[in-house]
Please model this.
Amino acid sequence: MAKKMVLAAMLVAAAVILAAGVSSAADVEGAGSEFLVADFNTGEKPNNIGGDFGAWSKDPTDFSQGCSEAFDSVNRRGATGFAMKLDYSVDSKNPAYNGFWMFLQNFDASKYDNLSIWVKGDGKIGYTTVFKVELKNASKQVGRYYVTNITDTWQDIVIPLKDFKGITDFSNLAELVIVFEDRIASNKKGVVYIDDVRFTKNK
Model:
């Protein structure tokens, strides 16, 4: 009898712990004024929510255009870790666009107001002061927003989700894409750094 009571108590305790763990995991997404998607500080894939990421190019066979990504510990934001370095070129006689993609794992951003990204250009190499940001959801909607006035110092770019044209459902976000386009880039070649990609709430 005593053994059965001990076993029952252990099962109850285990159930309580498991329930608490599930609750905590579920609450993480909806807790706090911001949710960190990627800080790149490990210097490895994936991002902070388990999503892959990388650079892409419209035409990989055209070597006059393209984008590459790299972890950068020199131009990082903060005292430790890394930023993401995006080395791009849209300097081609052909139509050119490229950039950086990141999976968002069907993240529910409906509780948040903004997409926030720290951004700066490379003052020595050069950079575009404008690029496009896209948010894609599981229903294949694509929202677009043009970031402007990039400088060579870190800025926290805060984009209201309502300003993404073309997307209405933020409850199942599949992908974030940064796009460098030949028709709008202020510099056809350059380097842009990004860091601390997150969803934020208005104060």
In short: The CA atoms of residues 69 and 135 lie 19 Å apart. Residues 33-200 form a domain with the Jelly Rolls fold (CATH 2.60.120.430). The longest helix spans residues 2-30.
